[in-house]
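User: My instructor asked us to take a sequence, write out its structure as tokens, and then describe one feature of it. I'm not sure where to start. Here is the sequence I was given:
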Amino acid sequence: AISDKTVIASSVIFLLAGFDTVKNSLVVLLHLLAANPSVQQKLRQEIQDNVDKDGTLTYQSLMEAKYLDACVSETQRMVPAVGVFLERKCTKNYMVPGTEMLIEKNILVQFSVWNLHRDERYWSDPNTFNPDNFMPPNKKNVVMGSFLPFGIGPRNCIAQRFALMELKILTARMLQEFQLSVVPGREELEMKKGPILRPGDTMPIVLTPLREE
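Assistant: Let's start with the prediction itself. The structure tokens for your sequence are:
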């Protein structure tokens, strides 16, 4: 039988993984688009082109929206939804290649996803929001293991496809209806530190309707 402790722990994880991370990523993505109007306009045009082709915003049109996918990926690179750190338990003795470092069985290994996603060995100008990192031809040059927005291995996020689709739908609908702009003096991302990165208490953006009612 499953213990009450396991049920409670699983419930908390589902709440955090299914709501908080998507909300946080959406806030960050909208703020980055507001702070980068040329990126915002290019993305809006892609969304509109797909709507014109299909007559409406569909699952297929979202899957074909490559720049939208790149904007979401770049947001997750800059502010990983998985959190600041990942940790895994070593299942057998492992000698790190090219070193004399032995990681013994049952040792808990923790590493920083934040630093990995901003490592200049893998990303040019890593502190700048640049969706072209995930567009051809750059996308094929992303080093395996250097981008871990949903964790890694068999225990990565089980809802990553659902979360990505949520982000894409919400972002597309926002850009169909509003021009996003930053509040003067509030251009920089404000993040709270913790196991999961969160936007600051106030990260306002200005929403200007694109069409009159």
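For the description part of your assignment, you could build on this observation: The longest strand covers residues 85-89. Try explaining in your own words what that tells you about the chain.
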